[in-house]
Amino acid sequence: MRNVLALFALIAILAAPSAARAKDCPADPRKASLALWPGGSIATGKTVTGTHPCGRQLTCTGGVSGNFSSRQCRWE
Description:
Layout: H1 2-23, H2 29-32, E1 47-51, E2 57-61, E3 72-75
């Protein structure tokens, strides 16, 4: 029983930092994508996936060259 309680405590401690990081993620995934891929670095139609510094996974598809607002991004 003591081992089970220790395991739950360890899980709670390890999960807390990731939950806190998720709260720090920007609301707009397109703007957040700039931390991973500067404007113009994703080819038109190419899809890339990466982990934002806040800890969440981000997927973006490049839009029209020179038009950052056409980039399509979403949190995974």
